[in-house]
């Protein structure tokens, strides 16, 4: 019988494919993991007084994947036992569907919770991904933070939120 | 020299293209490429203080000097998650 190759799922991904949160967590599962925290971001039907129909996500995919790797490295500096996997969806995402899943694993729950919170805050600060909101009566690009990974004040703010 | 400029989200819509070629002088910086593009599309000026950039798929500063054939990406404020 031919040997089956084991292909590890990708830790960092930007793709039009629907998000499989179990796959995200599986990509970093390890025998020493005592805790896995999975954060899943869903598309809401209401934003800033607007009835949202769907979101269309655009990304600069190669840099977005690099930003996830960078954020995971930052998290590991702060919580050395924690590891992260991040998948972000692009294209049209309907109400209630997942746009992002972050899995954080660690031997201990505190580090896994903190690392996952840190990751989502940093993604919102620096990852080159944009929401195009289609709502009842129009559409608008949502514009948040100027993406500057060297902005130490932003990084500190993300750390503070993660450590609450 | 020619550099390739990639544009995203609202910037892409303003320019009407996801990718454009921009002619800049030898020794030009990312800032110079932005200025050349803004001269073509005046509505880009509103983003002058809020964009960031990447060169050859890595984050970069607007003061970085470009080489012939470089790929510059201009990033409007991001909103992933």
Give an overview in words.
The complex is a heterodimer of chains A (164) and B (81). Chain A has helices at 21-26, 61-78, 109-126, 152-162, and strands at residues 12-15, 35-42, 46-47, 50-59, 83-89, 91-94, 98-106, 129-135, 138-142. By secondary structure, chain A is α+β, with helices and mostly antiparallel strands. Chain A has a single domain, classed as Aldehyde Oxidoreductase, domain 3. In chain A, the strands form 2 sheets. In chain A, strands 3, 4, 6, 8 and 9 form a 5-stranded antiparallel beta sheet that branches. A 4-stranded mixed beta sheet of chain A has the order 1-5-7-2. Chain B has 81 residues and is an alpha+beta fold. Chain B has one domain: Ubiquitin-like (UB roll) (Roll), CATH 3.10.20. In chain B, 22% of the residues lie in helices and 28% in strands. Chain B has 2 helices and 5 strands. Chain B has helices spanning 9-15, 30-40; strands spanning 2-7, 19-23, 52-55, 58-60, 71-75. In chain B, strands 2-1-5-3-4 form a 5-stranded mixed beta sheet. At the A-B interface, β4, α2, α3 and β8 of A face α1 of B.
